[in-house]
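User: Predict the structure for this protein chain, please.
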Amino acid sequence: MHPVNHEFVNILTEIQLVFTFGRDTPKMASSQWLSIATLSVMLCGGVHTFMPFKFYQSQISHVDITEMAILRKTAEVCRDLAQKEGRPFSLTIDSRLSAYAVQAACSSGSDPSLRSSNKFEDAIVEIYKSNWRVDIGSHLKDPEYHFDDETFVEGRNLITQGRTIVKKSVTLESFSSARETLGKICHTLQDFYSHSNWIELKNQAPFSTLIKPDVPFTNLADKNTPTCTDCIDDDCKNNILPEILRAKKLTSGYFGVFFFSGKKPTGKFLKILNTSIKN
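Assistant: Here is the predicted structure, written as structure tokens:
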């Protein structure tokens, strides 16, 4: 699994997803049921469908990553519950999952009126709308929401504090608020992998430090350390300095909006929206 998707699934797992589709709640330790039921969060309330577009069909968007992770984790939780209760579960968990298929598999044996996937789909949309709005709303130029400008500590704070807010919101049965926050923090988490050089450093596993507030970051490139060379026209591939790669230094790009260039230290990479800019 791609690190972005894997790490998002880890966040959902950390929150301890528990959900049953209209069936009697199985007997479990009270501590398990007091932990967050993010799948319940996703299935409460409704929204109007909204599909953010792609510039190219081959692109993988925040929507794609978020929706697939939710479907995969929902299916895994339902499978595990079915195994504990001795019930069959036949759904194949892969990249072809749909809300309808997951809802049907998780609702097997329950009242047919509870098998509609509409609320499930609406809840997924609400989460990924919140995710997508980070790129088009008031947080567009806030570097910590995207791990831009080497704001690794600040970005992690958003993720870990947001997870706490999600848990509290569910405890208070403020499910819409929980979905809103979950979408935001998952956007920031996903941006870490696309805005930093984590992949260029040949890392194959997710960066677990992002969800562990007490674990210090190590090997960060500071703001005075040059990390890249100029792009050649619009081609910015392989522009990270070899010494940064050899030392496994973690860095991220700086950001500007249209004609307003962002500020960056010398030797750093600046990107203005979808246009590559020489640094």
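The chain has a mean pLDDT of 74.
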